[in-house]
Amino acid sequence: MRILKVISLLLDYPEAAVQAARDELNQAIAAAREISPAQRQALQALLERVAGQPLLDVQEAWTELFERGRYLSLLLFEHVHGESRDRGQAMVDLMAQYEAAGFAIGVKELPDYIPLYLEFLASREDLEAREGLADVQHLLALLAARLAERESDYAACLQALLQIAGCEPETATAGIEPGQPDHSLEALDRDWQEEEVTFLNGDSQGACGTSRAPGKPREEQAVPVHWVGFNDNAVSAGKA
What we know:
The protein is mainly α and 240 residues long. It has twelve helices and no strands. The protein has helices at 2-11, 16-20, 22-30, 37-52, 55-66, 87-100, 114-122, 126-135, 137-149, 155-164, 169-172, 185-192. Helix 1 (2-11) runs antiparallel to helix 7, helix 3 runs antiparallel to helix 4 and helix 9 (137-149) runs antiparallel to helix 10 (155-164). It is globular, with a radius of gyration of 17 Å. Residues 191-195 and 203-240 have low confidence and may be disordered.
């Protein structure tokens, strides 16, 4: 599903390659019939900002938004059990699903990093991709609500994913209180103590992995996934 690749790029750490591919990405969004015209316009507006501003400015804004604690972390399992010891098996299970599908991770990024998970789903059949999004729709809805509360244009990405999963953004976020940012381990464990996530009908019981340290220089962190083009000769950085 091509639109998942676009959303993955928009959610990922901004790079010059994305800015250079603005026209191609804009065309891909315009052609996406999996989402409504309003959602397409919202994604195009985000793309225009990311591609139209100085790269260092959009990188700084992205880091400030997504890497200052767990409140808006793009690691799915951060919102499930935080630092709970239950995280290990879920990460192993997710890695096993990647490998069983022939999806080899060629970057030093955690399997539950949302842009990477979207790359995996983009390689699957449409029905399987939708099911994969539906598995985590409550987490996508949470992030969508928190981003909307901050009036961030990145909310468009999460809202589009909810729509692709077959859940209208307004319905998915109904009843969710964005709340105030609380980056403490105690707060996250309290909020998500009973929550579980299963991926593509798997039996994950938690999450694992280590998040990036807030404020850590980008060059010392895991390298994210990137697509440069959508033609048949394009090579995904996330696959062997």
